[in-house]
């Protein structure tokens, strides 16, 4: 069965599996959908790459019907409102790299607090979120779009809150970069 295209692989899957996969796709649960396709098709020769392509085609098929996770707001008023809800006194705003197999690299914008000490997520900035925030035609320069958007939003929020802004590695994605220390 090797050499089949994605529509042929889709048709080979049992109806129950197809229904389950479409359910995951419509909820924007890509990893779960890929896992189901891969497990159900592996015995017939379907590889992980083929499973990813089958699910990608289902995303294209369903288009606007997919309940996508909404973008985090990056305007300073919304970020300040989120920060105001954090327990404790905000001592800094920090941008931290993270990544996964679905989104590649992205940046988390955090409020760092004292009394009680902690870090509180304010926004997750994926590439698509960043491009929409920066504007389709705007050049992020040498920075990854997520870094450019995080830098812009984080600095604006830090100024508004009169606290330092920390982004240890804006030029290069690095989830091991040094963290904020007061």
Describe the structure.
With 182 residues, the protein is an alpha+beta fold. It has two domains: 6-65; 76-167, no CATH class. It contains seven helices and four strands. The chain has a four-stranded mixed sheet with strand order 3-2-1-4. A hairpin with a 3-residue loop joins strand 1 (89-100) and strand 2. It starts with 5 loop residues before the first helix and ends in a 15-residue tail after the last strand.
In brief, what are we looking at here?
This protein is of the alpha+beta class. Helix content is 44%, strand content 19%.
Q: Helical segment tally?
A: 7
Sheet with the most strands? 4 strands, mixed
Strands ordered across the widest β-sheet: 3-2-1-4
Number of separate domains = 2
Quaternary arrangement of the chains shown? single chain
Q: Provide the succession of SSEs.
A: HHHHHEEEHHE
Total strand segments:
4
* Share of residues in helices: 40-55%
Mean pLDDT: 91
The parts where pLDDT drops under 50 for at least 5 residues are none
Question: Structural class, judged by helices and strands?
Answer: alpha+beta
**Overall outline:** elongated
Which strand-content bin applies to the residues? 15-25%
* Termini separation: 59 Å
**Rg computed from alpha carbons, rounded to a whole number of angstroms:** 20 Å
Features:
182 residues, 7 helices, 4-stranded mixed sheet, single chain, alpha+beta
Per-chain topology:
Elements: H1 6-12, H2 15-26, H3 30-41, H4 48-62, H5 76-84, E1 89-100, E2 104-114, E3 118-125, H6 127-134, H7 145-161, E4 165-167
Parallel strand pairs: 1-4
Antiparallel strand pairs: 1-2, 2-3
Helix pairs in contact: 1-4, 2-3, 2-4, 3-4, 5-7, 6-7
């Amino acid at each position: 069965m090797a050499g089949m295209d994605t529509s042929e692989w889709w048709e080979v899957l049992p109806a129950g599996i197809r229904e389950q996969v479409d359910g995951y796709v419509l909820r924007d649960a890509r990893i779960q959908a890929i896992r189901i396709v891969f497990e159900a098709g592996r015995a017939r020769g379907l590889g992980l790459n083929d499973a990813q392509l089958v699910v990608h085609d289902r995303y294209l098929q369903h288009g606007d019907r997919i309940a996508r996770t909404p973008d985090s707001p990056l305007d300073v008023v919304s970020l300040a409102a989120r920060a105001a809800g954090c327990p404790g006194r905000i001592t800094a705003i920090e941008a931290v790299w993270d990544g996964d197999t679905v989104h590649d690299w992205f940046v988390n914008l955090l409020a760092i607090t004292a009394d009680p000490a902690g870090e509180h997520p304010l926004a997750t900035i994926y590439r698509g979120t960043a491009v929409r925030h920066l504007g389709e035609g705007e050049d992020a320069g040498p920075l990854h779009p997520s870094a450019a958007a995080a830098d812009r939003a984080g600095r604006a929020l830090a100024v508004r809150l009169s606290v330092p802004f920390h982004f240890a590695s804006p030029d290069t994605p690095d989830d091991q970069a040094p963290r904020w220390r007061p």
